Every structure is written in C-alpha cells, then in structure tokens.
Amino acid sequence: MAKSKSVYVCQSCGAESPKWIGRCHSCGAWNTYVEQVITRGRTSPGESNSFAVPHPLEEVNPDQVERMDLMNEEFNRVLGGGIVPGSVILIGGEPGIGKSTLALQVALDLGKKTLYISGEESPQQLKLRANRLGSKGGACLVLAETSLQAIIPQVTQIKPDLLIVDSIQTLFTEEIESAPGSISQVRECAARLLKMAKETHIPVILIGHITKEGSIAGPKVLEHIVDTVLQFEGDSHHLYRILRASKNRFGSTSEIGVFEMTGEGLRQIRNPSELLINQHPTDLSGS
C-alpha cells in the first residue's frame, strides 16, 4: 500500500528536511524550503520490481557494448565515438540556442526507431520543424506527453533504439505533489529514466534548461546521476554553436563539436579553420 510523507525540500540545492528551517544546512540559502508530499511504495505501470544479480567483473564481456553511430560526426566525437547503449546524456544550453533542433536532427538522421518525447511542442509543431530541416520523419515517433506514468509504458511497448526527452523540466510524476520543474520532480523523473535506461539498454538524451547563472536548472544531483553532461553554447545573434562535454563517463571531455545554424538546421563544421579563412579580408595589403 502506498504511503505518503511530508518533507521540506530546498529549492536551491534539493536538500531535504523533516521540518521547515530558515537557512539551508547544505547550500546556505535562506527561505528556500518548500513543503512537498511524497508517495512511496507504488510501482509505476511498465516498471519492473526485479532486482539485479551481482556478476564477477572478470566474466563481464565489454565487447558486447557497441556504440551507436548518431550519423553526426561532430556529436559522435564529443561523445567519444558514438552513444553507449543504456547511457543517459544531458544537453543544456540557453533558450533558442538550438538544443531541440540538434536533438530532432539526430532523431531524423539516425535511421533507427527513435521516440521523441515533447513536453513543449505539439506533434504538428514538430512536423513543421522537421519539414524545415528537410526530412519527412522516417522512423521517428513523437509523443506529446509530460506524465512519467504515461511515458514509461509507451517506451516499454515501443522499445525504441533511442529515447529523446524535451525537456526534463517539463516531466512530472504523480507520486510527488509538486509542480513540474521543481527540485523533487526533476530529481525523481531523472532517476526513473536512468533506471529504465540501465534495465532496457535504451540510450536516453535529456534536454535541460539553464538558470540565469548559466547552470542547468534543477538539483545538482541531476548532473551527477547522468553519464554525460553536454553544454551547447554560442551567441544567439551569431551563426556558430559549440558542443562540449563537462562530464563524460565514456570518453574525453577535451573534444568539441562546431555547428553553424542555418535555415535548414545545424550544419556540421568539420574543419573549424574555414571559419577564420572565410573571415579573412581579401583586399588587405599582402593578402
């Protein structure tokens, strides 16, 4: 039987307290604790109650893990050679920088069954953007849903090769009585998706909002539990974008991917030197 309990959660760092306190003992912020009711003991539809069994490390065969080619050289290089099955990737960036465009291009160009969960756009709006990118959709399935209890059964039934969630701040679980985007909702939804990814070996790409300070919105634990944290950077008034990793469990964090935002989507810049060459004036003395 499901049990409910009331806790106070810091909206700055996600720390919990059994009672309201004025100053957070974790981050030091004042007046950030909000009461939230959390329901435990229920299993969401589509989730498994089975437990993992330990295996000797020497018997584990790493050759069974084959990276998935995203059909995007820049994205593949930043990830370390492709996406690892069962991994969870978090992409953060400013509004309008092109996070959703990058994710949709990957879904359209992959050529495999992809489930695109949209909490911010309708299927009709996604279709208009796909047409602008010059693709008919192929094997990409779209689902405009924000309830985690409705999303997980769909993923279990469809069994996509790649799951994209746009964005993690729009999802909510009915077991927590707080608004979508709150510290508790983001943490719980991300943890559920991580558990599902590890059990089904379905790679997940999460799109995340950022705060005015430039950090990813939500609890800091969100960046800890995912396998890779990517930052999509650039000036929205200019054409060029840079994709870099601040955390990568399966590759280096020293690689970057360079893109150019065009009317037909993001174009890969395989040779960044061309940016400097194109900007070199030809009418200068000695040129």
* N to C succession of SSEs: EEEHEHEHEHEHEHEEEEH
Count of individual domains: 2
Q: What is the CATH homologous superfamily assignment of the largest domain?
A: P-loop containing nucleotide triphosphate hydrolases
Shape annotation: globular
What are the key terms here?
alpha/beta; 24% strand; Rossmann fold; globular; 3-stranded antiparallel beta sheet; 12 strands; 9-stranded mixed beta sheet; 287 residues
Secondary-structure map:
Blueprint: E1 3-10, E2 16-17, E3 33-40, H1 73-79, E4 88-93, H2 99-109, E5 114-118, H3 123-132, E6 140-144, H4 148-158, E7 162-166, H5 183-200, E8 204-208, H6 221-225, E9 228-233, E10 240-248, E11 256-262, E12 265-268, H7 273-278
Description:
34% of the residues are buried. This protein has seven helices and twelve strands. A hairpin with a 5-residue loop joins strand 1 (3-10) and strand 2. 24% of the residues lie in helices and 24% in strands. With 287 residues, it is an alpha/beta fold. The model has no long low-confidence stretch (mean pLDDT 87). It folds into two domains: 3-40; 68-277, P-loop containing nucleotide triphosphate hydrolases (Rossmann fold, 3-Layer(aba) Sandwich), CATH 3.40.50. Strands 6-5-7-8-4-9-10-11-12 form a nine-stranded mixed beta sheet, with helices on both faces. Strands 2-1-3 form a three-stranded antiparallel beta sheet, with no helix packed on it.
